[in-house]
Structure prediction request, 144 residues.
Amino acid sequence: MAKTSTRLDASQDEAWTALQSLSTWEGVAGIEDLREPRYDGAGNLAGFRFAMDTALGRVDGRAKVEPRPPAMTIYGEQKGLSLTIRVVITSQGLTASTAIVEAEASATSFLSKPLAITLNALLDSAIEDEAAKIASRVGRRDVR
Prediction:
């Protein structure tokens, strides 16, 4: 699992609010064309539809979001590939917080194992960039 942390120039509450917007997630780990957001009774993001370019072509998927403040986990699955993105926001005072970002791909079928291995290698090499995308949309970036 690829993992990093980044400092946010936003409080924990401000960061959590930003995670509820689809625009915060656009392009993270290759997910694009985010649409049709669903929210739970508390106003937390609960799911959305998305597209992703893969070696198998462009595929459309549905993401399930597990909001448990201050952590959010996004699960997406399509064509034998599962993608999990987890962000945990920890408070660093009134105006700052830290985001711990994890991303992992796994195969849900025998035929998609090579694709999952390739995607995990890409996530390992790009996790700081993926965290920076989130951080730049929530607060100023300072990747560690």
In short: Residues 140-144 have pLDDT under 50 and may be disordered.
